[in-house]
Amino acid sequence: MAAGGKFGFQLLSRKFGFMEDREIKDLFMKWGLQGYLSVQTYTFEKQFQAYQKDDFVLDFLRDPKVTSTLLMPSKRGGFSPVGSVAASVTAKAVPCSILSMDFFDRLHADGLVHEDGRICGCFDEFVEGFTVSDEIRKMLLMEDSDHYDLYSEEEKEQFLFLLFCHVVLGGGCCQYEDNVDPYLSTVKTIYKQLLSVQKDPTTKALHVISNVFRVTGLVG
């Protein structure tokens, strides 16, 4: 156990399939995400409980083994280690209870997507730096969209929904899809590989046992 009861971390050389998949890499490039995504795995030396999240992420972003290896996009292109120790952090729990891609069936039911997967278009508008030219992006970004309330505020906080937003909106140079299927298949693959599920021995129902946090660190 780490001295002083702190969490200690060690980088593992684990690769995730979706980061190596040629088709997904091509989509990331098309969506302006290639070169801006990094996935790394660390082990830690103490048992973790969700209520310890603040101490956990603070120890994480202050550990020299992390600050020297945790990669961030560089202004010069590519990635470079964080380097600096965090003075303070905030960690917000992100719910991840959804277990089925049926969650997105309402895109079809509510008329944002045709039966064959084609996304319904709309007149171009520019919102928060994004070109909004279809009903899905309009639903995500514009409160005056007829479909803005298709998902509740609680559902919009779900990790699965956030991943969907990330790939649909893309990066600075994003070529958008005309069909929703590449978005959904990519999100499904990422979600399954990042989270762990377990079967309840009594009910036999599956539930997610992973914890997801949105972390913000400030350098002193």
From TrEMBL:
Q: Which UniProt keywords apply?
A: Cell projection, Cytoplasm, Cytoskeleton
Q: Name one Pfam family in it.
A: CFAP300
Q: Write out the GO cellular component annotations.
A: axoneme
Name where it's found.
Answer: Cytoplasm, Cytoskeleton, Cilium axoneme
Q: Which residues form a coiled coil?
A: none
Q: Would you say which domain of life the source belongs to?
A: Eukaryota
Q: Which family does it belong to?
A: Belongs to the CFAP300 family.
Give the function comment from the record: Cilium- and flagellum-specific protein that plays a role in axonemal structure organization and motility. May play a role in outer and inner dynein arm assembly.
* Protein name (record): Cilia- and flagella-associated protein 300
- Report the gene name: LOC109463815
